[in-house]
Specification:
Shape: globular
CATH class: Mainly Beta
Helix content: under 10%
CATH architecture: Beta Barrel
Distance between the termini: 28 Å
Structural class: mainly beta
Radius of gyration: 23 Å
Number of strands: 22
Number of helices: 3
């Protein structure tokens, strides 16, 4: 693997010396230390906090000329101490490898492994907080003219080279189709329409694939001359789940921000995921899935709700939030956000021992997130944060553990993005 990386660098340097193009070789080194004392799940009284340091290291090679562009990104993701240093472990994986072609001023295409994100990343995102992050093997066709953008994405997956179709055992979609349209009405107002088809194959099946559809709109308003800005989204999900059950679910979000000055901003908003009622028999699921969308930063930094339909036992979720950001200087800022979580439908109370089947209280608790940012240079950033989950008793139904125990999480992360070579 080391020889292959060296060969890639040599090839890119040769291209840089001979072609009228832009070639960039850069990287990312991102270590993150975490004090895990209740992150993602409730700990019990007899469980001790864990101190974990993880690191993502990337090497990126990018090429662009008037008609062709390309990017290759390899990464190593590891937890400090997870393996004996003297062991020769194959830990490097391919994060991006794509080639792009520009047919004319309006049409272009991109083929290969690439990041795939739209709008605010809630339905299709990169999940960048996760050290591995998310990329897709697909063909992307793009149209852009004046204030209009139209993207068509197509992917079809298999777990190995096959001569005939058989079961796809990877926990991922079998095929994917996306159609995204964006219109910039003014310098301040933009709307997008997104349609996603993801086909999922049941375990053990060779031919059956169930189609799920997600359609919705996203609206943003942001004017430099106005103190107010907002974004809103609404999506409807229909078709069938991997199990074959019909789905009819929806998601809506709203976020309003106000800038009191150039150094002080506030925001308030709500996210709503529909869900199922455990006390009503229904052959249709109402639990909305955010597909390949981001969760960290939207539904609390402690990531209690990374997969909404599973983490709420299908009950759906309401997240009411309010926050503020204060810039202490050009290089230093900090923010504070409060989230209040509630179930949207009834789930069964599995922790009460009354001998009856009871409905759980819908209140899940409050999360408080604080983050400090320090950016001394353009390619170096230090972030640190502290969060606490003030869990209600019903959170134990979802996560286990002890809601009366103080749950907390602290972390510090350094992101360094060096540029090793650049030619224009």
């Amino acid at each position: 693997m080391k020889v292959k990386i060296k060969l890639l660098i040599v090839v890119f340097l040769a291209i840089a010396a001979s072609a009228k193009s832009q070639v960039v070789i850069d990287g990312e080194i991102r270590p993150r230390a975490e004090f895990n004392d209740g992150v993602k799940t409730l700990l019990s009284k007899d469980q001790s906090a864990a101190m974990v340091t993880s690191q993502r290291s990337r090497l990126n090679l990018s090429y662009q000329d008037d008609r062709i562009s390309s990017r290759i990104s390899v990464q190593d993701v590891r937890v400090w101490g997870e393996a004996e240093p003297r062991k020769d472990l194959n830990s490097i994986n391919l994060f991006e490898a794509w080639a792009g072609f520009k047919m004319n001023d309006a049409f272009s295409m991109r083929l290969g492994r690439q990041v795939f994100k739209y709008d605010d990343n809630r339905i299709l995102g990169i999940s960048n907080w996760n050290n591995i992050a998310t990329s897709h093997d697909l063909a992307l066709f793009m149209y852009s003219k004046n204030s209009n953008k139209l993207h068509l994405g197509l992917a079809y997956n298999n777990d190995k080279d096959k001569k005939y179709e058989s079961n796809y055992p990877v926990n991922f979609y079998k095929y994917l189709g996306t159609l995204w349209y964006n219109r910039q009405w003014t310098n301040s107002l933009s709307t997008s329409v997104l349609n996603v088809l993801d086909g999922n194959q049941p375990e053990g099946s060779d031919h059956t694939v169930y189609n799920r559809y997600t359609s919705g709109v996203y609206l943003t308003y942001n004017n430099d001359s106005s103190a107010s800005s907002f974004s809103a989204a609404a999506y409807y999900q229909y078709g069938k789940l991997e199990s074959g059950m019909k789905v009819s679910a929806y998601f809506a979000s709203f976020n309003y921000s106000y800038s009191w000055s150039g150094n002080f901003n506030t925001w308030i908003g709500a996210d709503y995921f529909s869900g199922d009622d455990a006390f009503e028999a229904d052959n249709t699921s109402s639990a909305f899935s955010k597909l390949q969308g981001d969760s960290h930063g939207f539904y609390g930094y402690m990531d209690y709700f990374g997969t909404i339909e599973k983490d709420t036992k299908g009950g759906g979720l309401t997240d009411l939030f309010i926050g503020m950001e204060h810039k202490l200087s050009k290089k230093v800022s900090h923010e504070l956000t409060l989230h209040h979580f509630r179930l949207n439908n009834n789930i069964i109370d599995t922790i009460s021992s009354t001998g009856e089947t009871l409905k759980a209280d819908r209140n899940l608790g409050v999360e408080i997130d604080y983050m400090l940012k320090y950016k001394p240079t353009t390619n170096l950033e230090l972030r640190a944060g502290y969060s606490t989950m003030l869990a209600a008793p019903s959170m134990e139904i979802l996560k286990g553990g002890d809601p009366d125990r103080y749950q907390q999480w602290a972390w510090v992360m350094l992101t360094f993005k060096p540029v090793f070579f650049k030619k224009q």
